[in-house]
């Protein structure tokens, strides 16, 4: 919160422009979901991936968010998916593989001609 000569104001959402905001938010989510096993939920900053075999298991995660007064942006949510792009990888029942964008980037990368370009390619493809 902050004060002006006229009133007091407080933010309703985390400001991700602040240097410690991502770490603070990550710590909050890790604390909220500490009792769930890692094979049920994966959290990276504001990306939450729920692994559930039933609707009830998925709702358990959503209830934790609701009880903490956290809101989801429904336009950015995907529900009942069997394959999803997560952090640049395609995650499905078959496993994890590079996402289409990464495969395209590697396929279209020009033939390296310098040591620097080889290093760029290795960074991209690993």
Task: Describe the structure in your own words.
Helices cover 35% and strands 19% of the residues. The chain has helices at residues 21-32, 55-67, 100-107, 115-125, and strands at residues 2-3, 8-9, 41-44, 47-50, 83-86, 89-92, 95-98. It has a domain at 19-80. It has 126 residues and is of the alpha+beta class. The chain is built from four helices and seven strands. The model has no long low-confidence stretch (mean pLDDT 88). The longest helix is centred in the middle third of the chain and has 13 residues, at 55-67. A hairpin with a 2-residue loop joins strand 6 and strand 7. The protein has a three-stranded antiparallel beta sheet. A two-stranded antiparallel sheet has the order 1-2.
List keywords for this structure.
126 residues; Retrovirus-related Pol polyprotein; alpha+beta; Viral_Replic_Matur_Polypro; two-stranded antiparallel sheet; 4 helices; three-stranded antiparallel beta sheet; flat; Rev_trsase/Diguanyl_cyclase; DNA/RNA_pol_sf
- The poorly predicted ranges are none
Beta fraction = 15-25%
* Total count of strands: 7
Oligomeric nature of the chains: single chain
Largest sheet: 3 strands, antiparallel
Tally the helices: 4
Strand order of the largest sheet: 5-6-7
Form type? flat
Helix content: 25-40%
Radius of gyration: 20 Å
What class, by secondary structure content?
Answer: alpha+beta
Average predicted local confidence, pLDDT: 88
Order of helical and strand elements: EEHEEHEEEHH
What is the terminal separation in angstroms?
43 Å
Protein name: Retrovirus-related Pol polyprotein
Pfam family, one: RVT_1
InterPro entries: DNA/RNA_pol_sf (IPR043502), Rev_trsase/Diguanyl_cyclase (IPR043128), RT_dom (IPR000477), Viral_Replic_Matur_Polypro (IPR051320)
Organism: Anoplophora glabripennis (Asian longhorn beetle)
């Amino acid at each position: 919160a902050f004060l002006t000569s006229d009133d007091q104001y407080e933010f309703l959402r985390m400001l991700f422009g602040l240097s410690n905001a991502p770490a603070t938010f990550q710590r909050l989510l890790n604390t909220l979901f500490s009792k769930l096993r890692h094979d049920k939920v994966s959290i990276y900053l504001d990306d939450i991936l729920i692994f559930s075999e039933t609707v009830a298991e998925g709702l358990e995660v959503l209830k934790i968010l609701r009880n903490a007064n956290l809101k989801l942006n429904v336009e950015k949510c995907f529900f009942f998916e069997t394959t999803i792009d997560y952090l640049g990888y395609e995650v499905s029942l078959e496993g994890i593989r590079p996402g289409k964008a990464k495969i395209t980037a590697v396929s279209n990368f020009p033939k390296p001609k310098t040591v620097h370009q080889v290093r760029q390619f290795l960074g991209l493809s690993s």
